[in-house]
Amino acid sequence: MFKNSKKESSVDLLGKTNRIVEATIIRGDIEAVSDLRIDGELKGNLLVKGRVVVGPQAKVVGNIDCENADIEGTVEGIIRVNDLLTVKTNANIKGELIVGRLSVEPGGNIEVTCQMLGQSGKDSKSNGKQEKAEKTEKLEAVEKKG
Question: Domain of 139?
Fold first, then answer.
């Protein structure tokens, strides 16, 4: 009755965008291979292999880990962007930034500590195990708060 359709590889998914629309609330973590746009609310962590866009009405309470990001809405947590994080005019970010490159438009509000990783997206100074332990501690603190 149903035929097995050709499964798409993760390479085929690049360039496609997932979307969480306005008035949608998700409680839990999200992992995605392709890009993701959030216009609703996420209470959880986000791990995306591509670009994350947090729309102007969106709210994320949790950590974001991605390749590139454009933030227009509200984010509370740790944001790790391997390449470029763009903070748009109406953005409101509280927490910690770990970025390769950072662009903040006039009017963007950031109350954060910031660690610049440079072009490679890797922190040459930190030990991987120590960094993972610190992230886990901070994640637990954010989860207790939320």
Answer: 13-145
User: Where is average pLDDT lowest: 11-15, 65-69, 76-80?
Assistant: 11-15
| Integer Cα distance of 146 and 144 in angstroms | 6
The one-character DSSP state at 3 is P
Three-state secondary-structure class, residue 99: strand
* Count of domains for the chain: 1
Q: Which of 101, 104, 134, 102 has its CA nearest to residue 120?
A: 101
> Which residues lie closer than 8 Å to 144 by C-beta, 6 or more apart?
none
In-domain check, residue 18: yes
Candidates 49, 58, 73; CA nearest to 19 is 58
pTM of the model: 0.74
